[in-house]
Design brief:
The structure holds 2 protein chains of 2 kinds.
Chain A lengths: L9 E4 L18 E12 L1 H7 L6 E10 H5 L5 E7 L3 E3 L7
Antiparallel strand pairs in A: 1-2, 1-5, 2-3, 3-4
Chain B lengths: L8 H17 L7 H12 L2 H13 L1 H9 L1 H4 L15 E6 L4 E6 L8 H4 L4 H4 L1 H9 L1 H7 L9 E6 L4 E6 L11 H5 L4 H5 L5
Parallel strand pairs in B: 1-4, 2-3
Helix pairs in contact in B: 3-4, 8-9
The chains are: A mainly beta, B alpha/beta.
Chain lengths: 97, 198
């Protein structure tokens, strides 16, 4: 399956607060950022919870950059996170920049 | 929920010892094999490795370009790897510039490029560092005694997934006469994390 996103794409992180392990940090939930790199494919950590004991299928992971204003409401820095494709959906507006 | 590795270390250590004893009792792992594997890995894991990469990058622009483009493929040139005793991890080296500074954290636990930086400092694993450096990195750098020029932008790299990060600090001024070994000696672990200038 081809990657859904590539460098330059605007993406929004999921707002879902799952009742199990995830690698989507709470501070980034719902925030809109820009993909800067494709990292390759890795098993979704959340799927280890759903599918035990089978090893989950690897899925694309992206480096996504967010402005501090988008994440926290203020600040002049940026933060990059490594996010699995399942955590992201396409975004149309840029949010705070 | 996210993994929090900051729980009582003694309980975790007891659990690890118990698991290890079970593996040995059932003949799944030879006695002391895990200890030997860990010792072999840790004996090679040191910030001196990261410092060598930085010194070479300062002296050799082509090496630096290769390291920034594909760190895993470039590490073997200095006899290094992100493999160690475990599966190889993806490494990304990020370069500080005149107008961009970089800092590393793992907000979810304590992910860290152990092979190149050695065991992580206690503060790197503390909830205070992990929560505050993403929120207000400039203030955290000040607390480390690092007064970054206000005009320099900061990016914080949250190593929250499978990649590991290392900062390539800027070469200090007036070091034109130093050789590779002397340059490597200037590089600190904190500089490789991004909480010190070098």
């Amino acid at each position: 399956m081809a990657e859904l996103f590539g460098p330059g794409d605007l993406v929004q992180a999921s707002r879902i607060d799952p009742p199990h392990h995830t690698r989507l940090p709470r501070y980034a939930r719902g925030a809109t950022g820009t993909v800067i790199e494709r990292q390759g494919r890795y098993p979704l950590p959340d799927a280890r919870f759903w599918q035990l004991p089978a090893e989950p299928e690897p899925e694309p992971v992206y480096t996504v950059i967010f402005s501090a204003r988008e994440l926290f409401g203020d600040g002049d820095h940026t933060v990059t996170l490594d996010l699995w494709e399942s955590y992201l959906r396409p975004a149309v507006t840029e949010g705070w920049r | 929920m996210s993994a929090d590795h900051a729980g009582p270390a003694t309980a975790l250590a007891a659990r690890v010892r118990q698991l290890e004893a079970l593996l040995e009792d059932r003949g799944l792992v030879e006695a002391r094999k895990l200890d030997r594997a860990l010792e072999a890995f840790l004996s090679g894991a040191s910030p001196a490795n990261g410092a060598r990469l930085v010194a070479r990058s300062w002296l050799d622009a082509e090496f630096r370009a290769r390291l920034l483009a594909d760190a895993n493929a470039t590490l073997p040139e200095l006899g290094l790897s992100m493999g160690g005793a475990l599966a190889e991890q993806r490494l990304k080296v990020i370069q500080n510039t005149e107008d961009q500074h970089n800092v590393i954290v793992c907000t979810l636990c304590s992910c860290y490029p152990l092979a190149l930086l050695g065991p992580s400092p206690t503060w790197y694993k503390s909830p205070a560092y992990r929560s505050r450096v993403v929120r207000d990195p400039r203030r955290v750098l000040h607390e480390f005694g690092f007064m970054l020029d206000p005009a320099v932008k900061i990016n914080v790299w949250d190593a929250n997934a499978e990649s590991r990060y290392m900062v390539l600090p800027r070469r200090p001024v007036d070091t034109g006469n130093l050789d590779e070994e002397a340059l490597a000696a200037l590089v600190t672990r904190d500089g490789l994390i991004g909480v010190a200038p070098v």
